[in-house]
Amino acid sequence: MRILITNDDGINAPGLEVLTAIAHEIAGKNGEVWTVAPAFEQSGVGHCISYTHPMMIAKLGPRRYAAEGSPADCVLAGIYDVLQGGRPDLVLSGVNRGNNAGENVLYSGTIGGAMEAALQGVPAIALSQFMGPGTDDLDTPFEAARDHGAATVRALLDKAHWDSDDYRLFYNVNFPPIGAKAVKGLRAAPQGYRTETFFGVEPHISPSGRKFLWIKGGPQHLPTAPGTDVALNLEGYITVTPMRADLTAHDAVADLGARLG
């Protein structure tokens, strides 16, 4: 199996090391693992692509490249430049430092990388490690992802539905903020919504007197509705959410048509 991996935390992120080990286990002895990851951190860029300016790409080692772009850029670079059109069998994006559950999904570069792969017709999985008090004292906060990652990916490859629709399915995995031995299992879950968590801005005045704004996030450990991703993560489960890039609110189309006559 040929696997392309990327992330949004950057080429030197510890989560990418965890993902590399997961990918090698899945690819097998005769498989290939190719890395194309951002040269610098790209957290929060979503499904951004560098449409209006070029990006530099550099080979750092065998099958290992860094690109000055977003995770979606890296997937495009991997498919069309690094692999010269020799398409991967699977794209893995992550392992993100922090959860990409609930409303975080909409901002996530990790999700953006997997989404671009799906739009290119390649099976894709995004993986993220929820952080919290339960991971603070571990040797690595990525312990749950490290120990359960390969089994989770293999379960999806063997048992999940992989379609070939225009907006094809991809999968979003979040590992709970606990040690590996405390993980309760694997659950399919819809995306939740933290009703009291919002992004905002915090102004600061620089020494030169100019105002700068920092983007500020809200509490991450507020549970979402029962049975949804964040709630299940906080209960100790690995969650898998099937996703598509289609943003249409299908439940509202017929009603809107009737209202418009």
From TrEMBL:
Residues 3-195 form the Survival protein SurE-like phosphatase/nucleotidase domain. GO terms for cellular component: cytoplasm. It catalyses: a ribonucleoside 5'-phosphate + H2O = a ribonucleoside + phosphate. It holds the Pfam family SurE. GO terms for molecular function: 5'-nucleotidase activity; metal ion binding; nucleotide binding. Its main location: cytoplasm. Keywords: Cytoplasm, Hydrolase, Metal-binding, Nucleotide-binding. Binds 1 divalent metal cation per subunit. A divalent metal cation binds at residues 8-9, 43, 96. It is found in: Cytoplasm. Its cofactor is a divalent metal cation. Nucleotidase that shows phosphatase activity on nucleoside 5'-monophosphates. Belongs to the SurE nucleotidase family. PANTHER family: 5'-NUCLEOTIDASE SURE (PTHR30457), PHOSPHATASE, PUTATIVE (AFU_ORTHOLOGUE AFUA_4G01070)-RELATED (PTHR30457:SF0). This is 5'-nucleotidase SurE. The gene is surE.
